[in-house]
Structures are given as structure tokens and as C-alpha cells.
Write a structure and sequence with these properties.
This protein starts with 5 loop residues before the first strand and ends with a helix. The chain has 3 domains: 197 residues, Aldehyde Ferredoxin Oxidoreductase,  A, domain 1; 163 residues, Orthogonal Bundle (Aldehyde Ferredoxin Oxidoreductase Protein, subunit A, domain 2); 152 residues, Aldehyde Ferredoxin Oxidoreductase Protein, subunit A, domain 3 (Orthogonal Bundle), CATH 1.10.599.10. Strand 7 and strand 8 form a beta hairpin. It contains 25 helices and 17 strands. The protein is of the alpha+beta class and 582 residues long. Helix 11 runs parallel beside helix 13 and helix 21 packs across helix 23. The strands form 4 sheets. A 6-stranded mixed β-sheet has the order 2-1-6-3-4-5. It has a 6-stranded mixed β-sheet with strand order 8-7-12-9-10-11.
Amino acid sequence: MRLPTRVLMADLTARRFTVEDRADLFQYYIGGAGVAISLLKEYCPVGADSLGPDNPIVFAVGPLVGLYPLASKTVAMFKSPLTGNLGESHAGGRSAVAIRSAGYGAIVIRGASESPVYLSIDDKGVQFRDASGIWGIASSVTTGRIIRELETGAGTRTIMRIGGAGERLVRYASVITETYRHFGRLGLGAVFGSKKLKAVTVSGNHGIEVSDRKLYRETYDDIYRRAVESPVMKKYHDIGTASNIMPLNLQKGLPTMNLKTTTSPDAERISGERLAENYLGRRVACAHCPVACIHIAALREPYEKEPYFYKTTMIPYDYELIYALGSMLGIFDEKAMLHLIDDVEIWGLDAMSTGVVLSWATEAQEKGLISQNETLGLNFRWGDEPTYAKAVEHIVKQPNEFYAALARGVDHASKRYGGEDYALAFGGNEMPGYHTGPVSHVGYLTGSRHSHLDAAGYSIDQAALKDKLPDPKAAAAKLLKEEAWRQILSSLVVCFFARGIYDKDTVAKSLETAGHKVAPEALDEKGMEILREKNRFKEREGFKASELRIPGRVFETASPLGKIDEKYLRESVEEFYRLLYA
């Protein structure tokens, strides 16, 4: 069969498009992350303004999309306005299947429009639609509803759009797709906003042929069976990632109140079990996924002036949202937390960055670094959801210098107002929700996206609870090996939850049925090369590993493995980068 090698090039400045066949890239880099980094390096000039027309947006999918379960992610790459180097974000939903069904392996959006626009993409190319009527609509939910009425392809299309945060260039604004999925991290929403790009819709009805149907059926059945029978996948279906709340709280690894502590007696109130028992309204799956790990709360409340009339709000939740907008802010009232999650969703902000920014601001006000003059009269207190909700609105609208600083991320704000020791960011990206030991933080520092999903350092910490912590060199080697392998998974665009299912032999066999032969033993080096390319882009844009800032709070607050040793972190980071280019 033929690999998806067509790349759609859309120029917002000229409002023109072309289609190129880039079999060279897809044969070498497979798809997804591998192809995306190559296209980003090709089309993003050195030193480009991340909020300027020269910063391209690259969406890429992989050869297993539409063929196998759990191959359902789209990789987005761009220059991040939050960190100034690599921006990479992954989203599920229908986006990957829609892009492949339209006949493309990747989409590159360049330039900037003079007036608001949204793109309607199908197998015939691009329509540049006037978005003046929906520009200024702050709600990403309302934007999606309007575009659904305007565009055809219901049930098969994807609608990727921004809310008010993206329009106002908040550096950690997200792009929302299918309402409950996001390109969340590193500011893709702000890049959309800088281009006056309100949304991108993609639809298509191309089928996918396989050359050896018998081998394909055998491979498919094997992957499907392992997915539905896996106890890990059952956990994701039943409770979701929110099942991590109570174990981490008991281990004293749940970041709470800006990581001043790692446990709370009230954590059960925001646990996955509590939410599933009292609020779970539905489960949603990404396209071609049998697991359905997306959990949606149904929050039923009376109208304020009509006590016998009720409204039901559907609100997505998972571990990272609960950590960032729950424990990190000292919010242990589940309804209040769900309200704040809903606000962040509507504005189109990255939840993790928002929670970390607000938790820093709370502590900075406690310590007298900022006053109510800066906060416009708000008194930040742990657990005070209405005040945080108002602060979220201010971050989006940026009515003064303080909120404009918060809109640029906690690194920037702390450099302006102080409190860098408790400004929890790594490489400029706000901290994920794991304080499990030193290796989790080494992972944030060395990961190409500074994300917990880069190399899952927390899993090495967890293993050390039963065994022993590897020395810095061994930890670095393990992290590097895992992140290199994850480049293969993200080039296939396989969900990382399925990493135990898609082992090397399964990957090689599934690729063969997709028309891409590669020996299992060659995959490791391919992944390493993709990882090097991503780090070369970062370094090209000014990233220096030797200048990484480690927040002092990391060393102050004990983890489940005790206090974290700064020397261990720095030696591990140094070894990681040495091995990367060895």
C-alpha cells in the first residue's frame, strides 16, 4: 500500500495552497514527530519570532492511523512562544483520522492573515473562510458550535480552534479539538492567534487499502485483544488517569499548594474514584480507540434565580487537570475544582501552566512580593476558586502589567517580581504533576518538551520505592533510551498509554502491513536520530542545557524517596546530554 506522504502547504499571507509529495521524509522519519521536526527545521527560519508570520505550524500523522487501534494522535510542532524553542504538542480526538482521510500525511501552515480567518481543508485543498464574525468570541466551546453549523462532514471531521486566550496571545494558550481534547502545552493557541487563525477544520473520506489482508487481520486482532484485555487499559477506562490521585497522595508525591507539601487529608474529595462515583456523565474515546479513557463529569446545579430548574455542565477531567487546578491551588472541593476546569477549558488555556502560574502568584502574594495593587484587588488564598476564576479572566484579558506578566508564564513573571525559587518551571515550561523523586525532575529538565510524557522519569522513581534508585549515570541512560523509543511511538502517533502493547516486534509488523519495512533492531537508532534533531532545533533557537534553572522548591519539599539531591539532578542532566550526542 502507499504511505500517506502528501504534505498540504497553506499560505495564510497569500491565501494560497499547494500539495507536495514528501516520500523522502516519510520513508526516513516514518511520520508524526519525525516528519514534523524535519518540516519545522525546513520552514522555520533561524531566530524566527515565535509570534510572527515566519513561525510555521506543522501537523503530522503516521502510517498506522486509520489502520490500528490507539494510533490516533496528531503531532503539532512550532516554535514555542512560551520557551522560545521547540513547541511540540499531541492531541487525540478525530484530528489524526480526519487528516489521513483527507489524503494527507502532514499539513504546514505558514504566514499570517491580515484579517481573521479559519481554514476548511478536505481532499481538494483549502478554503480560506472569513472568521471576522467569530473573532472575539472568547469561548472555545461556542466557536466550535458555530463552525459545526457552517461546515459539512459531521461525525468525521475535526475542528481545531482557539478561545480568547489564543486571540490575546497568552503564551500557554491551547488549541481545542473535539471539545475534550487539546494541543495543550507550549502555546500553539498563541501561534494561531498571532496568525489571525481562529480554527482549522479537516474532513475527508479516503479509504485505506492494505496489500496483505491476512497479515493485517492477524496483526490487528493481536493489538486489539491486548488492548481490551490489558489491566492497565481497564484502569484507564474505569477511572482514568485520575486514579493516580490517591496513590500519589498516600506516597506523598502529589504536588500541593505550589509544592509546599505533597499530601493532603482532603485529597479523596478530588480523587478519580470520588468523581467517577458521584459525577461521571460519560466516557469518550479518541477515533479508533477501544479504551475510552476520556472522563466527563456531569455537574448538575440549580439556576441561581430559578431553584427548581437545573442545568447540567459536561466537564472533562484527568489527573493533570486535577493536580493543576485542584491540589496545586489547595482546591479540594470537587465542585469548585470542576468549575475552575470549565473556565480554563472555555478560555482555551493550558491547565497545567495556568495552575502553576496561579499557585506561584498565591505564594508571591503571601510573601509580600505582590500586593492587591498588582492583583487589582484580588486576595489569592489557597482553595478560593471564585478568586482564581477572576484571575484566569484577567490573565486572558491582561488589564495591567502584572496579569500581562502572568500571561507570559511563571518563568517570566518570577523574573519580573521575584520568587524564582518557587516558580515551578523546567526549561520555561510549567511543571507537570509528579514530585515522585529525583528522576521525574531529571526527565522534565532533559525532555525535548520538558514534559512528564517525554521519558516518564516518575516511573523510575516509583520502581525505586521497591528496589533502589539508580545512580545518576544509570538514570540518565534509562531516560534517554525511553525517550528515544517514544520518538518512534510519536512518529507512528501511537498513544503513549499503549506503549506496552506496541513493542518493537509489533511496531515492525504493523509497519510492514502499512507499506513501510523496517527491522526491529533499527528502530532504536531511528528514534535516537529524531530526538537529536529535536534537540538540535532547540539549541539552534538558543537553548542551553548548562543554563537550565532548577527551582529551589524541588529540593526543599521531600518526595516519596526523601529530599532530592541537587548534585544528583545536575550530574544526571549532564550525563543525559553527553550520551545524546555520543
